[in-house]
Design brief:
single chain; alpha/beta; Aspartate Aminotransferase, domain 2; Aspartate Aminotransferase, domain 1; about 15% strand; globular; binds pyridoxal-5'-phosphate
Length: about 375
């Protein structure tokens, strides 16, 4: 059964208690293959529709794919063992040697590194890295451009890019667009409806939501593209396991209430930081002072719990602030129940940080579900080390 309401999709979409022994929660199909009643049904199998082998498809994984496709308003969802498995498969499915790719400097670090370390030197692809503006992306288009890789908001300084300003041009030229939609989740941004061809998600962040699973997803509308992506996943073998897929199905059930809470807390934390005398800049798309706040308001239904800020001080001062935090734990990733802090630019040069639109003292925090008073109190006492 499918719905057009996101909450109904997340909770009940694609499920049918009648075919799952009336269990309210769908089972985990923990199997590597499916058997056939006779040779005729085995020989006549429809490889696109029927289950045969676990590297190609699995009923638990398929249910998750159906829900993600419906949430993104796509026709095909594909789930992978990590966000990076999804990204690398998408590039292999869309590009060949000699092709030209456009990517934002500020895309997720390992995405940029994969292009630099594998696609350019080993696969003979050409890549132009650009600023996170529609104008810069459009100016970089060449006759041999086949793919544009986007992320909005970006996950370090939360820059927002005007998606439709790009897809209006790329569509007319037959260039495919891909966007990392991990920050917003399908609930707060639906890029396929803005003309994007492939939406990518890391399930390891909000969709899983409990910091206990690694996974990734691609969703598209074009059916041939969906088949190409599925075939590539089959070759590279990056499908998620049934247990991990089931954990993400569980995460989806509480996604909307978790996100609402993360957003509400992050907004208050961002306002607190913006008013703090030792904080120079706060990067959060929900703040009216955010440079692309108007675009964010137009294309996003909300912002999440991730934000970053620069203190008025050196990177060593920022390090002392981070070490003084007690509730925010030091750790990469985000999107789980817990509050986290990292300094993504500490080990970069000042020039590299400037290219990412920030300084070495950048502090990135994820506001978890501990409660707004606890988090603001923790930040207030940690910032006091600067007094
Ligand atoms: C974590 C992350 C990824 C990578 O996902 P993995 O599941 O760790 O491979 C990609 N993009 C963004 C924005 C991320 O935060």
């Amino acid at each position: 059964m499918f719905f057009d309401d996101d909450q109904m999709i997340a909770l009940h979409g694609g499920e049918d208690p009648a075919i799952q022994q009336r269990a309210v929660v769908p089972p985990i199909y923990m199997n590597s293959l499916h058997v056939f009643p006779n040779m005729a049904s085995y020989l006549g199998v429809d490889v696109e529709k029927e289950y045969i082998y676990g590297r190609v498809s699995n009923p638990t994984v398929h249910l998750l794919e159906e829900k993600l496709a419906a949430l993104e308003r796509g026709t095909r969802g594909l789930v992978f063992s990590s966000g990076m498995a999804a990204l690398t498969t998408a590039i292999h499915a869309c590009c060949k040697a000699g092709d030209h790719i456009i990517c934002l400097y500020k895309c997720y670090g390992p995405t940029v590194e994969f292009l630099k370390d594998i696609c350019i030197p080993k696969l003979n692809m050409q890549v132009t890295f650009v600023e996170a503006t529609a104008e810069a992306v459009i100016a970089a288009i060449r006759p041999d451009t086949t793919l544009v890789l986007l992320e909005s908001p970006t996950s370090l300084v939360l820059e927002v890019i005007d998606i439709q300003a790009i897809t209006r041009v790329t569509k007319a030229r037959g260039i495919r667009t891909y966007i990392d939609n991990t920050y917003c989740t399908p609930l707060y941004q639906k890029p396929l409806t803005l003309g994007i061809d492939i939406v990518m998600h890391t399930l390891s962040k909000y969709l899983g939501g409990h910091s206990d699973v690694i996974g990734g997803a691609l969703v598209c509308q074009d059916e041939q593209l969906g088949r190409d992506l599925a075939r590539c996943r089959e070759f590279y073998g990056g499908i998620i396991g049934p247990m991990e897929g089931w954990l993400v199905l569980r995460g989806l059930r509480s996604l909307s209430v978790r996100l609402a809470q993360h957003q509400q807390v992050a907004m208050q934390v961002a306002e607190f930081l913006e008013a703090h005398p030792r904080v120079a800049r706060v990067h959060y798309p929900g703040l009216p002072s955010h440079p692309q706040h108007a675009i964010a308001q137009a294309q996003q239904a909300g912002s999440c719990g991730l934000l970053s800020f620069e203190i008025d001080g050196t990177k060593e001062d920022a390090l002392r602030v981070c070490d003084a935090l007690r509730v925010f734990q030091i750790g990469v990733s985000w999107g789980g129940f817990e509050s986290l802090v990292v300094m993504p630019m500490y080990k970069k040069t000042a020039e590299q940080a400037a290219q990412c639109g920030t300084g070495q003292q950048l502090i990135r925090i994820h506001c978890g579900l501990e409660g707004v008073d606890v988090l603001i109190q923790d930040l207030r006492q940690a910032l006091a080390v600067l007094d």
